[in-house]
């Protein structure tokens, strides 16, 4: 069967599979997200991507009490229940996602031009708010991910807002088009535009592990790995996946650790062995500040207001895994 | 004279038999030696010394200074920090005194301690290092007067040679010199040095740093020929046309015989500009000589002239060669309260720099210094504050040569006597206006001036750091104005006691004042403004720097500032769990009370690799202002 021009849609009893010649995506209703992103036989996800709100406390955050004021976002980052899922396949809107036995109406030959699936997450904050993460998949496998945060009166400022994707193995490196070095909204004037290649997933060796490695104003980032967890995969050739900004640019960091892992260590050597790739693609990044480290706030322009909406959007194009061309 | 332990307790005793502070010039026995920068008049005593550690003064062995004393001894490297050889606990603490919560103390002469003595000579927290070594005089030193120079010793030292008491010194970060001549033998000299971690000087040295002790800088023997330049004061001035200038010299000689000296000045291309012969005397002056065209020194063009003084016997034998590179530059404050260097607005793209090496603490190498200069140049850093003590002698030369403006700070910080948990509470502040402490702090000002007065790089004398303000610091300011018209004075702490504002500091200096506060001051500035500390680079920081730079571009009265700071203070140790070499900070050695990771505020990591913030510093420091 040739699905070159159509998505093959597999209505599983608790999942939705979308496949094409070089890709296979699996959305899990039970797990509340995109469980598998397989491209040319290589799995790119360790766990479902989720919105992220927490950055590992910086020394300045600790000094001015931001980690205390924003503490709710640590809980929201750590556990994020999925409240609702909506699905649209071509023009058909599902009131409820189709699980067994409703899936008995389908066959193994279902096709679609486009599929849109939205997961609504509820934050463990007081008051709670929601984040909707929408995956729009086109016939060629192009996957557009959009996360929308709904501002809510009474919520503290956010440490960060973005999507966190955890990959099963540690990347060999990454390449991106953006600014040199590590940049933050209030520390990016010195970043020189260009395309940069980074070996491995370096963690900046601050005495106390903390937020690090952010790259503002990025057009795209290509992650290159060489290993998988698949015991039957005997191929050791590098393989890559590119994340493109859907409109304008995004910020990202690619580290072997989650913000919680960084948060938990008081010295670099307390970090666990590096074994995954944690890619954060952020739509809103808080400045790092620098006036002092014992009380001065980040300048107001570089805060992330919790009471207004925020968004991040990016595209994964399975056809772009080789050479990156965005111009 | 016998050594007295009670000197440790007496703030008015800080130098016994010490040779008065003098210029940092080097002396050579010949022109060839001067050209090769290797003097036969100098004998290094660095290396392995015998060592005894005593946890308290009471635990020291009896009569350890007697040549026949047989130990037992350990061995230690000079220079090094005693704590980093694991004799004493490593401890990092910021503003509190290191005895916080361990020993109740008040400085001598303050409210709760009206008696004139401290308690350090019997204190349980005053550990002692006893250093001993033997030496034979090198050929170049024999038959001459010989002194010993300790370039740095924390915090109080006693010296004996061949069983005779030689002298006592405080002020940990400036050279201490003693005449050894009366007790010297050609061979088999037994030198004993006793270094106490604490003395009354501990009240004056409460800098935010790891608290170490010991002979942490080099020790050497220096020989003085029969006629010797003891002090050299180079007085280059720039005329109002900023084209011509004048050079005058004032020399102090020690002379055992009659003789003469020649003074030569060459420009950087070795063209001779001046040659004069002067008769040797206790003081020799070169009257001002006019230079029609002077090539001015600044950060972009650190042009140096070569001065060479040659000292001859009456019979014409060359006794001593003293080379010194100097520069012409002029700093002043104009009617609009703008600091002008050579008639151009001064721009300070500065950093604070502690001397630091992750393996050896404040014992640093020449290579470390060269690397730091290279980092400065690469990142548009044009100024350094020697926080919060004078640095190694070589650093000043490097700044001259590389055009790094210096704020040369005295070894003075009494933070814990006036600021408690952030609040201003000067109830037992020293030096304050306490007479008892005035001689010690004035001596620190004098030593800093006398040692480094010939460096064109030094634009500011900084009276000290975070010590509040009173009559004593006002007297330090006055000292500099009385002795030096070629530099400005700087002191931030007077903002805590504005009653002294007219008498202390030529510039308005703040720390960490947010941009809005900076602008508020600049709108009605009556002194030039700078931030002696700003952009606190702790961890992932240095955000918002642009707000300061834009104000610099708007207000010429804003001379700039010094980022806090250049390099993380952290120690590289082997982690017993992983076997990896790892960085450790305050509190990691069971040290309490500690201030933990606050020791790491550099734009460089402790291993001298740049933090990501460096590119931002380079960008903003590279902008025109």
Automatic annotation (TrEMBL), chain A:
<protein>
    <recommendedName>
        <fullName>beta-galactosidase</fullName>
        <ecNumber>3.2.1.23</ecNumber>
    </recommendedName>
</protein>
<dbReference type="InterPro" id="IPR050347">
    <property type="entry name" value="Bact_Beta-galactosidase"/>
</dbReference>
<dbReference type="InterPro" id="IPR011013">
    <property type="entry name" value="Gal_mutarotase_sf_dom"/>
</dbReference>
<dbReference type="Pfam" id="PF02929">
    <property type="entry name" value="Bgal_small_N"/>
</dbReference>
<dbReference type="InterPro" id="IPR014718">
    <property type="entry name" value="GH-type_carb-bd"/>
</dbReference>
<dbReference type="GO" id="GO:0030246">
    <property type="term" value="F:carbohydrate binding"/>
</dbReference>
<keyword id="KW-0326">Glycosidase</keyword>
<dbReference type="InterPro" id="IPR004199">
    <property type="entry name" value="B-gal_small/dom_5"/>
</dbReference>
<dbReference type="GO" id="GO:0005990">
    <property type="term" value="P:lactose catabolic process"/>
</dbReference>
<feature type="domain" description="Beta galactosidase small chain/">
    <location>
        <begin position="17"/>
        <end position="317"/>
    </location>
</feature>
<dbReference type="GO" id="GO:0009341">
    <property type="term" value="C:beta-galactosidase complex"/>
</dbReference>
<keyword id="KW-0378">Hydrolase</keyword>
<dbReference type="GO" id="GO:0004565">
    <property type="term" value="F:beta-galactosidase activity"/>
</dbReference>
UniProtKB/TrEMBL annotation, chain B:
<dbReference type="InterPro" id="IPR006103">
    <property type="entry name" value="Glyco_hydro_2_cat"/>
</dbReference>
<dbReference type="InterPro" id="IPR006101">
    <property type="entry name" value="Glyco_hydro_2"/>
</dbReference>
<dbReference type="GO" id="GO:0009341">
    <property type="term" value="C:beta-galactosidase complex"/>
</dbReference>
<dbReference type="Pfam" id="PF02837">
    <property type="entry name" value="Glyco_hydro_2_N"/>
</dbReference>
<dbReference type="InterPro" id="IPR023232">
    <property type="entry name" value="Glyco_hydro_2_AS"/>
</dbReference>
<keyword id="KW-0326">Glycosidase</keyword>
<dbReference type="InterPro" id="IPR006102">
    <property type="entry name" value="Ig-like_GH2"/>
</dbReference>
<feature type="domain" description="Glycoside hydrolase family 2 immunoglobulin-like beta-sandwich">
    <location>
        <begin position="227"/>
        <end position="329"/>
    </location>
</feature>
<dbReference type="InterPro" id="IPR008979">
    <property type="entry name" value="Galactose-bd-like_sf"/>
</dbReference>
<dbReference type="Pfam" id="PF00703">
    <property type="entry name" value="Glyco_hydro_2"/>
</dbReference>
<dbReference type="InterPro" id="IPR006104">
    <property type="entry name" value="Glyco_hydro_2_N"/>
</dbReference>
<keyword id="KW-0378">Hydrolase</keyword>
<dbReference type="InterPro" id="IPR017853">
    <property type="entry name" value="GH"/>
</dbReference>
<dbReference type="InterPro" id="IPR050347">
    <property type="entry name" value="Bact_Beta-galactosidase"/>
</dbReference>
<dbReference type="GO" id="GO:0004565">
    <property type="term" value="F:beta-galactosidase activity"/>
</dbReference>
<dbReference type="Pfam" id="PF02836">
    <property type="entry name" value="Glyco_hydro_2_C"/>
</dbReference>
<dbReference type="InterPro" id="IPR023230">
    <property type="entry name" value="Glyco_hydro_2_CS"/>
</dbReference>
<dbReference type="InterPro" id="IPR036156">
    <property type="entry name" value="Beta-gal/glucu_dom_sf"/>
</dbReference>
<protein>
    <recommendedName>
        <fullName>beta-galactosidase</fullName>
        <ecNumber>3.2.1.23</ecNumber>
    </recommendedName>
</protein>
<feature type="domain" description="Glycoside hydrolase family 2 catalytic">
    <location>
        <begin position="336"/>
        <end position="621"/>
    </location>
</feature>
<comment type="similarity">
    <text>Belongs to the glycosyl hydrolase 2 family.</text>
</comment>
<feature type="domain" description="Glycosyl hydrolases family 2 sugar binding">
    <location>
        <begin position="43"/>
        <end position="225"/>
    </location>
</feature>
């Amino acid at each position: 069967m040739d699905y070159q021009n159509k998505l093959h849609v597999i209505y599983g009893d608790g999942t939705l599979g979308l496949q094409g010649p070089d890709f296979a995506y699996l959305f899990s209703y039970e797990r509340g997200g995109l469980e598998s992103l397989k491209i040319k036989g290589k799995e790119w996800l360790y766990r479902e991507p989720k919105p992220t709100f927490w950055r590992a406390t910086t020394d300045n955050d600790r000094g001015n009490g931001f980690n205390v004021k924003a503490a709710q976002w640590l809980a929201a980052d750590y556990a994020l229940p999925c409240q609702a899922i909506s699905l649209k396949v071509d023009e058909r809107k599902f009131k409820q996602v189709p699980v067994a036995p409703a899936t008995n109406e389908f066959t193994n030959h279902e096709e679609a031009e486009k599929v849109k699936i939205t997961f609504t997450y509820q934050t463990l904050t007081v008051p709670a708010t929601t984040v909707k993460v929408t995956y729009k998949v086109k016939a060629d496998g192009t996957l557009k991910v959009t996360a929308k945060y709904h501002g809510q009166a009474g919520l503290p400022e956010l440490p960060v807002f973005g999507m966190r994707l955890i990959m099963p193995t540690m990347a060999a490196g990454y390449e991106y088009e953006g600014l040199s070095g590590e940049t933050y909204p209030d520390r990016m004037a010195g970043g020189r535009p260009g395309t940069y290649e980074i070996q491995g997933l370096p963690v900046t060796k601050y005495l106390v592990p903390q937020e690090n490695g952010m790259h503002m104003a990025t057009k795209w980032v290509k992650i290159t790995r060489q290993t998988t967890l698949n015991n039957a995969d005997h191929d050791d050739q590098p393989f890559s996946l590119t994340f493109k900004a859907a409109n304008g640019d995004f910020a990202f960091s690619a580290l072997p650790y989650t913000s919680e892992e960084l948060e938990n260590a008081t010295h670099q050597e307390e970090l666990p062995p590096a074994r995954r790739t944690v890619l954060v693609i952020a739509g809103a990044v808080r400045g790092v500040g620098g006036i002092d480290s014992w009380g001065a706030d980040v300048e107001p322009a570089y805060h992330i207001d919790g009471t207004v909406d925020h968004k991040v959007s990016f595209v994964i194009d399975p056809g772009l895994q080789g050479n990156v061309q965005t111009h | 004279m016998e050594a007295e332990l009670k000197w440790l307790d007496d703030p008015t005793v800080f130098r016994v038999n010490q040779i008065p502070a003098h210029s940092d010039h080097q002396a050579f026995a010949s022109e060839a030696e001067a050209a090769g920068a290797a003097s036969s008049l100098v004998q290094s005593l660095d290396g392995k010394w015998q060592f005894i550690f005593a946890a308290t003064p009471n635990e020291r062995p009896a009569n350890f200074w007697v040549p026949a004393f047989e130990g037992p001894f350990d061995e230690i490297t000079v220079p090094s920090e005693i704590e980093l050889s694991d004799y004493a606990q490593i401890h990092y603490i910021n503003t509190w005194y290191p005895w916080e919560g361990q020993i109740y103390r008040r400085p001598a002469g303050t409210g709760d301690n009206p008696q004139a003595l401290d308690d350090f000579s019997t204190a349980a927290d005053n550990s002692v290092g006893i250093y001993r070594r033997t030496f034979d005089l090198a050929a170049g030193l024999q038959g001459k007067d010989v002194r010993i120079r300790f370039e740095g010793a924390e915090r109080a030292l006693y010296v004996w040679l061949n069983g005779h008491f030689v002298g006592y010194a405080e002020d940990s970060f400036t050279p201490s010199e003693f005449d050894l001549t009366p007790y010297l033998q050609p061979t088999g000299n037994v030198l004993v040095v006793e270094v106490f971690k604490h003395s009354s000087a501990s009240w004056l040295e409460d800098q935010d740093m790891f608290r170490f002790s010991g002979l942490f800088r080099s020790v050497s023997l220096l020989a003085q020929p029969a006629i010797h330049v003891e002090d050299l004061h180079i007085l280059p001035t720039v005329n109002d046309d900023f084209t011509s200038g004048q050079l005058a010299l004032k020399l102090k000689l020690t002379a055992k015989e009659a003789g003469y000296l020649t003074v030569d000045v060459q420009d950087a291309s070795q063209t001779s500009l001046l040659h004069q012969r002067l008769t040797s005397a206790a003081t020799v002056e070169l009257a001002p000589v006019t230079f029609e065209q002077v090539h001015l020194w600044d950060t972009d063009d650190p042009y140096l002239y070569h001065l060479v003084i040659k000292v001859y016997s009456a019979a014409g034998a060359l006794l001593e060669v003293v080379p010194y590179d100097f520069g012409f530059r002029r700093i002043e404050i104009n009617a609009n309260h703008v600091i002008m260097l050579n008639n151009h607005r001064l721009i300070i793209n500065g950093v604070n720099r502690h001397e630091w090496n992750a393996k050896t603490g404040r014992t640093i190498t020449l290579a470390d210094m060269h690397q730091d200069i290279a980092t400065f140049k690469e990142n548009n850093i044009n100024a350094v504050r020697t926080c919060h003590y004078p640095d190694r002698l070589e650093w000043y030369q490097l700044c001259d040569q590389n055009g790094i403006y210096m704020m040369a700070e005295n070894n003075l910080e009494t933070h814990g006597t006036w600021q408690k948990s952030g609040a201003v509470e000067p109830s037992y502040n020293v030096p304050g206006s306490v007479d008892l402490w005035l001689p010690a702090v004035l001596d620190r000002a004098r030593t800093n001036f006398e040692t480094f007065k010939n460096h064109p790089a030094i634009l500011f004398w900084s009276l000290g750091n975070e010590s509040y303000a009173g009559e004593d610091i006002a007297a330090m300011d006055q000292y500099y104005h009385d002795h030096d018209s070629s530099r400005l004075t700087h002191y931030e702490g007077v903002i805590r006691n504005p009653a002294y504002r007219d008498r202390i500091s030529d510039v308005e200096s703040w720390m960490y004042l947010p941009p809005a506060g900076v602008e508020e001051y600049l709108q009605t500035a009556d002194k030039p403004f700078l931030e002696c500390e700003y952009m606190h680079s702790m961890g992932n920081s240095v955000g918002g720097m642009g707000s300061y730079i834009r104000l610099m571009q708007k207000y010429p009265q804003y001379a700039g500032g010094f980022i806090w700071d250049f390099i993380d203070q952290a120690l590289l140790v082997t982690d017993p769990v992983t076997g990896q070499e790892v960085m450790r900070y305050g509190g990691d050695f069971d040290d309490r009370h500690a201030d933990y990771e606050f020791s790491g505020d550099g734009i460089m990591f402790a291993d001298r690799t740049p933090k990501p913030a460096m590119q931002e510093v380079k960008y903003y420091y590279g902008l025109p202002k």
